[in-house]
Hints:
The complex is a heterotrimer.
Chain A: H1 4-7, E1 12-17, H2 22-32, E2 37-44, E3 47-52, H3 63-66, E4 82-89, E5 96-98, E6 106-111, H4 113-126, H5 134-141, E7 143-148, E8 173-178, E9 181-186, H6 189-199, H7 206-220, H8 225-229, H9 242-247, H10 251-255, H11 264-268, E10 275-282, E11 285-292, H12 313-332, H13 342-346, H14 353-374
Parallel strand pairs in A: 2-6, 6-7, 7-8
Antiparallel strand pairs in A: 1-9, 2-3, 4-5, 4-11, 8-9, 10-11
Helix pairs in contact in A: 2-6
Chain B: H1 3-29, E1 35-41, E2 48-53, H2 56-59, E3 62-63, H3 76-79, E4 86-90, H4 92-103, E5 112-116, H5 125-132, E6 139-145, E7 148-153, E8 160-161, H6 171-174, E9 186-187, H7 193-200, H8 207-210, H9 212-218, H10 222-235, H11 241-245, H12 270-284, H13 293-297, H14 305-319
Parallel strand pairs in B: 1-4, 4-5, 5-9
Antiparallel strand pairs in B: 1-2, 1-3, 6-7, 7-8
Helix pairs in contact in B: 1-7, 10-12
Chain C: H1 15-18, E1 23-28, H2 32-41, E2 50-55, H3 63-71, E3 76-81, H4 92-109, E4 117-121, H5 127-144
Parallel strand pairs in C: 1-2, 1-3, 3-4
Helix pairs in contact in C: 2-5
Amino acid sequence: MDATRITGASLGAARIPSGPLDKLAAAAARVAGDGALVFGPARDGSVWGWKLCEAADVPQSDLWERLVNTDVSPKELFMPRTEDIARWRDRLRNLSIAEPAAPPPVVVLGVRPCDAASFDLLDEVLIEGPFSDESYRRRRGATLLITWACGKTGPACACDAFGLAPAAAAGDLMVYPDGNELLLSALTPKGLEVLGDLTGGSTAGEALTGRVDAVAAALNAQKTAVGRRLALDDLTANAAGLTATLFSSDIWTELSPRCLSCGTCTYVCPTCYCFAINDEPRGGDGRRIRTWDSCQFKEFLSMAGGHNPRPSKVERVRQRFMHKLNYHPERYGKFLCVGCGRCIVSCPVGLHVAEVGEALSRAAAAAVSAAKGGE
Amino acid sequence: MSAVAIADLSRDLARLEESVRARASELLESQQVRMVIGHKRAWNGPLAVAHFAVSPKEARKFAAGPHCTGGLAKYLLEEREKDGVVAVIARGCDALGVRRLLIDRRVDAEKVLVLGVPCAGCLDPAKLAEALGVTPAELVEVTLAAGALRVRLAGQEQAAAGPPLDKVLPPTCMACEVRMPVEVAEMLGGDLAALTALAGRPPAIDLETAEAEVTRLEELSADDRYAYWAGHFQRCLRCFACRNACPACNCRVCALDSYDPKWLGHPTEIPEQFMFHFIRAVDVAGRCVACGECERACPVGLPLMQLNRKFSKDIRTLFGVDRPHLPGEHEPLGKFEPDDPEEFM
Amino acid sequence: MSVAKTKPEADGANAAAEWQPKIVAFCCNWCSYAGADLAGTSRLQYPPTVRIVRVPCSGRVNPRFLIRALQRGADGVLVAGCHPGDCHYSTGNYFARRRFLLARRFIEYLGLEPDRLWVKWISGSEGNKFADVVREMSAAVAKLGPNRKVREAR
Ligand code: SF4
Ligand code: SF4
Ligand code: SF4
Ligand code: SF4
Ligand code: FES
């Protein structure tokens, strides 16, 4: 797939020592804007998620050597689990409606390249499409993403199978571990401003960007264990009729029975964006809220009259994976999966995007070769 | 476990796997059943996943052993409308799950054939990973060979000796009283001496130990307990894996999905999260089969069994029903005694 | 995401001084509702803290009603039914008794105050008892202060 998704162009680079990152966090917060909130990976109970960091508890750089990635994706920073669309008061007598205040600027410190790339995918759908999702757009616009290149890949990682790589350039500012130091490379003007703030205006020139390219290339050469097993090229062959063939493939009846129809895979996934809008009336007051929703839930498509177009798991499991691996690629030219591996780790019954991807690419290869044979 | 027993155990498990495959093929071949539900090795990682065989060929994939973790009873709900018998390869907890569905009249006894298998306990990947100082995702392959757990980690070519199985069992397996399943139509592997001896032993921990965490929480201050639960509940994603994995959560329309009345609001803020977990725990009180599936399924590690165990503990102390999930005991909340305690009433 | 504040707070200026608990009472149609009615027709004095919801039987009261009431602004919940042995449907209150014995322990386990839940047997002729229970319960709940732990923000 598209090589520019991996390399990116550096606007400027700098070098800082490994260790405490409070200066970097502070510089990013200044650039992000007044009242910026800094989020970083943090352990909550037995799982890793994202937490607001006070200046004192900004993680140290060695965290990214220990932690492959968080268990919960950072998408909730842009698509909160619950968000107000509007609140109303006194509906019958003196109706007043309040819209939520503008979201504060946010710095996300240390997203992995897969997650940073997931936001690019969401942007294409939610901002750049014919319809712009205002709430998402406002939050995204107020964000500064500091992306941490992966020095090692995790056992469930599969970025390379989905057109990315362990140091794929995404976000505003990339951080590459380089011995005892960190190489910073700005990908956007915002990222460059952070570098300027941090180094007092002097971002280094050619020599350092050359080093960035070398370090990035070395990291990007890493192959993931899951990725090695997948050959997804046929899925993007765009062969005529491929969608219909895959849609009616037997693999769905073979793979779906063990699914529990829980929403785990979609809720841990950084690229799933389905939501529900509901009113929560309380007497004359109330709120209209948006919450996450999942195509895997039995009731997801149930209609008022009782009809459900995806009545069984065959249709629901098919929807999830066809969307990620076929419909979205057909329309946007990229998989709607960044290979973060979260669904692989979290699905309670081990129904993996990679397992499905493998089955699907076998079905696609068969379809493509049948089509060739018929020509 | 003595060394000899462990050595025999791995041999017995291999034999058990063979007899599961053979019996399943036979039942499918003769069309006595139309489907057999069991486990097979997963595409990735050390655990097995649910497998649905409808032909003798597919029956060759069945697996048995400590890596066969996920519950199977709940899948019967999806088969209930179809004709024909479905067989389930049932560990003790699966058999209790099937029993739950039968008592709740959600499946028809005529359409189920429970094939019991003695269980050595199912490994807890989180515990095993912790014992080895790695993350669960790094466990690539776990076998019980040559007398001990052997584990291959991500990036390794060779498997290495790991901890003994009974050190890496989840609390539910350690407290399990049905490693020899009850209420089964047939028992497979009932002649395997080492396995049945192990499965027939009393649980590794007694009730009091199993409830130690409940007791600890009971002794905290009210505000600390609130902070404890609010902290866990706010992490809950509302994915409903806990409910969907639970054999006692078998309602036609779940209260948590109902729009009218709308028991559970859509906001995921603390008051609604309490409502959610209150409903789930109260509804399975006295009906929970202690399989631990809810907790196992939860992607963000909520200690849901500490809610369920609170009820089983109180049911025991208040109503004298020790093991509401075992045969012989009536539903403790579906009956009463005229002289039940009154306390605050 | 932050955990709701557990300390009672004033709703507004002076509110703390004037604050009175809100109690939702689920009263069975055949005994306790009649008892409440009798308290009224007998002009017995009791605090205006209670909002009565008439239910066919105490056995109708699902424990989740309790959390719903607390969520939506109640500070306490009273479940009132016929005395054991007197239930119009023979056994409803026996089942309710088991359920609420557990429910009260369970909310305590979740860190809520168990005294926000009361269960009382009040017959149709016990208007006095109804008034007494409301008085005692109002005082007890007033001592606990406003319910904040599971109450929705408005
Ligand atoms: S694939 Fe797994 S995580 Fe997703 S809905 Fe099915 S059981 Fe849940
Ligand atoms: S489908 Fe799975 S691997 Fe792909 S982005 Fe979503 S959670 Fe990650
Ligand atoms: S939570 Fe309650 S209503 Fe929902 S399935 Fe479980 S038992 Fe039924
Ligand atoms: S499985 Fe865990 S995260 Fe999902 S709804 Fe249940 S408690 Fe919440
Ligand atoms: S009718 Fe009063 S408690 Fe049942």
